[in-house]
Structures are given as C-alpha cells and as structure tokens.
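At your convenience, could you comment on the folded chain following this short note?
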Amino acid sequence: MSVDTQTLDEAAVAAYLKESLPGFEGPMTVTKFQGGQSNPTFMLKTPAKNYVLRRKPPGVLLKSAHAVDREFRVQKALQGSDVPVSKMHLLCEDDDIIGSMFYIMDHVPGRNFNEPAMPDLTPAERGGITDEMNRVLAALHQVDINAVGLSDYGPEGNYFERQVGRWTKQYKASETQSIPAMDELMNLLVEARPEDDGQRTLVHGDYRLDNMIFDAKTTDCRAVLDWELSTIGHPFADLAAVIMQWQLPAGAEGRGMGGLDRAALGLPSDQEFIAAYCRRRGLNGIDNFGYYLGFCFFRMAGIIQGVLKRALDGNASNPERAMKVGAFVPIFAQHGLDALKRG
C-alpha cells in the first residue's frame, strides 16, 4: 500500500503545538524539505520564528529504523557542548496526532553544501569549511558521554561486530537482487575485524558535509543534522565515512571528489584530513584504515538498499530520488570490497 509522506496534517500539528510548545503562535505555513530519504522533514514557518518538524514515516518499517526519539535525545544532550546542534523543543510519541512519532526543533539558518568540492566557494573558504568539519568531528568523539547522560545510548562490546550484524540483517530484510560483491564484503567484514582497541565514544553514524549547516558568512558550523544512526560506538567509523564519500565521483550525483585536484581547490587529501583529526584527538595514527573504510561502504550500501526497497513498496520520502540512489548499491559494495582488500 502506498503511504503519503509528502504532506502533513497541518491543522493537527498547529493544534498540538499551540497546546504543547510555549510561545508557539500561528498562522503556520508548512514546506517539506526534499533532501533526505529516511525521516520526512518539514519547515514550519510562523510570524515569530521558524521550526522544523521531523517525523518517523508512517507505514510498515524495519525494526529499529527511523528512530526519531533517539535523534531528539542525542541532540538535546549535546546542547551547550562543542558540537553545534539545533535547539530541541519537544518529542511527541503519540502516533494519534499525525500518524507517527515526531519532534520539533529550531530552524537553523545558514549555508548547506551538497558537494564536498563546494564549487561556488574560494579555495580558502573550502579549506576553512573542511577544517571546521574536522574540528567538529574530533569534538564529537571527545564528548564525555557520562557527563551528558548518554553512557547507555549504545550497548557495550565491539561496535563493528554489532554494526556488521545489524546491517547484514537489515540488508537481507530489504534485499531485492543478488549482489555477489555485497555477499563477499559481508563475510570479509566478519573475518577481518580488528581487535577492539577500547575506544567507546558518541558516533554520528552518517557524518558528512551535507548533514551540516554553516554560518551564512563565516566557516563556522552552526548545526550538525540527521542523527538517526547515532549511537555509542567506535569513532573511526565516522572518520572513515567522510573519506568514503570523498572517494566517490565528483558532481551532484556522486557527491564525492574523485578525480579532482584537491590541492588546487584548497581541499585536503585523505591523509591530511586523517592526520588533522589524529592531532586534535592526540592519536599517533590509525592502523588498518581500509577495514573502517570497507565497513562504511558496506553500511551505506545497506542504507540505500533500504531506500530502494521503500521506493519499490511505495513508502519512500522522495520516490524518484530513491530509485536513483538505489542503483548505487552494487557500486558501494564493490568499493567496500576493494578498500577492505587494500587494507
């Protein structure tokens, strides 16, 4: 059955916010953000200020997916930290209001970049934005999870063991075709898993440039968005996710930096970005980075396979883009296999 994720019951939302959100006054106008495939997100404009509503999609969903309650909790915990996030207002867990759980946060104005090459900026601006991305990532991994109340935000034990298990199950639950490279990658990620080095930090789970809002005039980050995949885990997964995206083809479709002269553009090499991150965290370097990179390609293949399955089931947030994105599953699987074999 097709489920409408493109619209919102505006009257129900307005009535609920008038009752539950201090300072809320209509009239309210609603616009859906077209970016993002997982949790439908809407701008709520009012005369006094603008808000964002992010909801769990209606319909039949994979277990543990679309956890907007976790997104709300982690961003609320990070307020006042060195990791910039939007101000959280309220979480509505009553499905009867609009048909699924949702939360309300401030709208953060600023710049958002769809491509890491940032074609409209100067080399100095590109370098500044990318270094700020590095700073925020290191800050995220140095958050005291006990002090902010997130020590129970993820299970104990080997992060990569449980993540490979989780995404293997989710991939198989949404599998629509046989991809030999994906099958081999899933097996190798189990066989080649490094020993646990004891690092246990907050991780974003989908850390990349287009999930960040930057100041309209400076290179300062004003908010990190899309925390659905966040948990307590291993920080190198977030770092490898950045490098993973950069290895994809340049342009609006691949949204990577493959084939670009990064030095001429004012952008760091993979090695320079990793070295800056290690300096900020006081690390001497990272062994076997290819495993973490292979893992990130695998997880992204699992994510976009889920997007494709929702499109085929008529339950995608942006159906046309979902079908295009789904075509990348075999490519991500092969990239992951290559990275893992390189070590």
Remarks:
- The chain is about 40% helix and 10% strand.
- Confidence is low (pLDDT under 50) at residues 1-5.
- Residues 132 and 220 are 7 Å apart (CA to CA).
- The first strand starts at residue 29 and ends at 32.
